[in-house]
Design brief:
single chain; alpha+beta; Barwin-like endoglucanases; 2 domains; six-stranded mixed beta barrel; elongated
Length: 165
Amino acid sequence: MTYDKQFFSLSFFAILIAIGFSLSLNGIHFSSIAAHFNPFFNSAEAAQQSSTTETASDKTNELLLISEGKASYYANQFHGKKTANGETFNMHKLTAAHPSLPFGTWVRVTNLNNDKDVIVRINDRGPFIKGRIIDLSNDAAKEIGIMHSGTVRVKLEALKSEPSA
């Protein structure tokens, strides 16, 4: 009897694999579905991926993507320590931590409560708190006015190239 159950289980999985291959050969892919159910993503990556859409700016054609979510900042306790890309964190520079954008990416962060914005360079990984999409340096947080609240809803726009001074 157990042999029949094992044979059924193996047959069932073989059929599922065959269906998966035939669907992928026909152009149907499950990568976007799998990304939402991947247990290896941390909560910050999952939050960022679920709220990101690609777009092009109508005015300047320099934006790569737009994402909205909650921003926070980190300052004193990390000042002088190494960031994920090997730099020394300086809370007075306009930098930020993002879970998945490449190091060196320039991002416009806009506070959705007051429309103030700042352009920061990604040099670290984080935030590691569920529901947050970016951690700003102290001075970047001051620029958009989130020092008193600690967190705020923001819009992220990744730039194609380094912004001009």
